[in-house]
Write the structure tokens for this entry.
Amino acid sequence: MVSLPGSPATNLLQVLFLGLSIFAPGTCAQLQLHVPAGLTRLQAVEGAEVILPAWYTFHGEVASAPPQEVLTLMWFLEQKGKDLKQVLAYINEATSSLPGVSLVYSMPSRNVSLRLQSLQEKDSGSYRCSVNVQDRHGVNMGHSSKTLELDVLVPPAPPSCHLLGVPRVGTNVTLSCRSPRSKPAAQYQWERPPPSSQVFFAPVLDAIRGSLSLKNLSTSMSGVYICKAHNEVGSAHCNVTLEVSTGPVAAVVAGAVVGTLVGLGLIAGLVLLYRRQGKAPEELANDIKEDAIAPRTQMPWPKGSDTISKNGTLSSVTLAPAFGSPQSHPRPGALTPTPSPGGVSSSALNRKGAVPVMVPAQSQAGSLV
């Protein structure tokens, strides 16, 4: 609210009027200003209207006597940390006021109640009514003032609901609810509507901050959650839908299983490859191709070297004095088996683990045929 505009003379009159109302001796006052007994503080809801009741009388006055007074009336608003503001004035039978402010009864009247319409929170404060009465001859008949406290309450504005966290099976989430404006401060309540009716209380519910903690989620906890913000003059609500998901957890488990199987397969493949590479040299050592080039000179077997290795293979043997008579001509391309060296029988060599070796036939010149 803003102060009423006025001339310097009117402003001076306001100061003088307040001075008379406050500092005049009580013994000189015949006028008495009244408010309802015990009523010093009023509450109203923002957007509504309120009436601040006040009236005056004269002490010892005969009720049948006609009123013969001239009324000067002013209403002021006092707010902490702000200047005094005039909201209504009735002077010389003329009324001036701020928008939304008026007198309940037409003047002249001894009922000087004030009506405030379309209230806002900023209209809260102390309202002082000051009355000064003179007779028709200008003689002062009295002055008085009373103060009424007005507190404009604000219902909660529509709150905002939010979901904090990822709603998966086994995880924890928090539902938050907050109203941007409320006087007094709003209290919060979370609940689930039918068919899964449920009301939440502490410790999972923080009624001051408006948070609801849901732990160890399950699919049965999916659904709509309603938050209600309320105070003594009103309420508002919002809702949030919770969808508890199971897909990501199953995918993680399946991925872990597949990864393990792939890892085991790779390890098995590496082991088999390593074992095959280890056997390759042994197999190549035992393979003699038919088209291998014969050595230029004949390498005689060392005599007296009938030796069998520890692993059971024949490491060196002594050949018989001759493979055959020089006159014998072996069939070209035929391979002759190696005779048993040193008179050792083939069965004995086999029992000891010896490996038979096919030796190419030799011509008279000593070359392989």
About this structure: Residues 1-10, 15-29, 300-328, 330-336 have pLDDT under 50 and may be disordered. The helical segments are 8-23, 247-286, 346-351. Residues 247-286 form the longest helix (40 residues). Residues 272 and 278 are 10 Å apart (CA to CA).
